[in-house]
Design goal:
The chain has a domain of 150 residues: Rossmann fold, CATH 3.40.50. It is globular and about 105 Å long. It is of the alpha/beta class. It has a 5-stranded parallel sheet.
Length: 383
């Protein structure tokens, strides 16, 4: 019986790295009986390598068009499963991945029951792979991302907002709901911590391959990773303040580019900042809400007698983001203006050079024409 391995995130656990690695090594994986298919489904704002997104995609629509659109989405849901069935006739294992499933499966009623039954009808077993990151780190990462894009609220206001509910941070409740349908033995839980990665090299990729029963070796290629530098500390705080203005709220606005440059310069001089948004005491209070559930996950889903899910040390020495002097903010803004001025100056210099080149080319190309016109005039006058 073939197996579908469904990687469902969670978000902020290196899912993009895994999704880029699998298609790059598609041929090698196929030789070992694993297929990471591209169905050709594309969605706005969704990485094309998130090949499981069709399972949970829900398009925003008006009430008038909702019935027709939902019907189309359901048709694609089962169409995709039919294609997985066809692939399973060739490959005993099929891999799908999309981190939105962790949060988004609730948008499709009875998602896990429907998926399990539909796969069983097609002769496939289901294994779910999920990576968990310590809850406080998830929230900090999401907050930094949201500030980078547009929000202006403080971290405390963010904690008090309804956005926190989106994360589904009660891991035990979520895993229990899934396992009650597909079976606990079919839920593979891994921890997003370097010290807990298994496999050759102890990396996220080696750990993921290990869950499939594979070993990372020199045959596999590593994708060219474009590091998306995260703003943090006082540089993120400047961006948060600037979000007062609409022109700074876009994802790729010029302020982010200059802030990243200024941050990199600062890190070269002063070292990488360890500023976080929680105080030590508030961090521990926040994690206390999930302590019992995390213990249950460790014991019931990972067979850990000690009940320890996350093993990274929580240090007291972190600085706290937000406690910055006005002079620090002004200097960063000044550096941004300086960088913008330098860029504009370089662009103007480049444009001037290009225009001068065009002028010389026009003069060169026009010489024969000028000579012809002059000759025509001469012969007309002195004919």
């Amino acid at each position: 019986m073939a197996t579908l391995y469904l990687h469902i995130g969670t978000p902020k656990t290196g899912t993009t790295a895994i999704q880029n690695f699998l298609p790059l090594n598609g041929e090698l994986l196929k030789k070992q009986g694993f297929c990471y298919p591209d169905f050709g489904y594309r969605y706005n704002g969704v990485n094309k390598y998130r090949n499981a997104h069709f399972l949970v995609h829900r398009q925003s629509c008006s009430l008038e068009s909702e019935k027709e659109i939902r019907k189309s989405e359901d048709e694609r849901f089962f169409e995709g499963l039919d294609r997985i069935k066809e692939l399973s006739n060739i490959y005993p294992n099929v891999i799908l991945s999309d981190e939105n499933i962790w949060n988004g499966y609730i948008n499709r009623e009875n998602f896990w029951r429907i998926l399990k039954d539909a796969l069983a009808e097609r002769g496939l077993d289901l294994k779910v792979i999920v990576y968990l990151r310590r809850q406080d780190m998830v929230v900090e990462s999401y907050y930094a991302q949201r500030v980078k894009v547009k929000i202006q609220m403080s971290f405390q206001d963010y904690l008090d907002s309804e956005d926190i509910d989106y994360f589904k941070l009660d891991y035990y409740s979520q895993l229990k709901e899934i396992s009650q349908v597909i079976g606990k033995d079919n839920v593979i839980v891994r921890v997003y911590e370097k010290k807990q990665y298994e496999g050759n090299g102890n990396t996220l990729i080696s750990d993921f391959l290990k869950t499939l029963g594979l070993e990372l070796d020199e045959r596999y290629e590593s994708p060219d990773i474009v590091v998306n530098t995260s703003l943090h500390g006082k540089f993120l705080e400047v961006k948060r303040i600037l979000n007062e203005f609409d022109c700074f709220k876009t994802r790729n606005n010029f302020a982010v580019r200059y802030l990243k440059i200024a941050q990199e310069e600062d890190e070269k001089s002063n070292g990488v900042s360890s500023s976080k948004f929680f105080t030590y005491e508030k961090r521990m209070d926040f994690l206390e809400k999930y302590r019992e559930g995390n213990t249950a996950v460790a014991k019931e889903f990972m067979n850990r007698r000690d009940g320890v899910l996350f093993r990274n040390e929580i240090r007291k020495s972190y600085g706290i983001a937000g406690n910055y002097l006005p002079e620090e903010m002004i200097l960063i803004c000044g550096r941004m203006l300086e960088l913008q001025h330098e860029e504009m100056k370089n662009k103007l210099g480049s444009m001037k050079t290009e225009l001068e080149g065009m002028k010389r080319e026009i003069e060169y190309q026009s010489r024969p024409l000028v000579r012809k016109i002059a000759a025509k005039i001469y012969h007309t006058i002195f004919k």
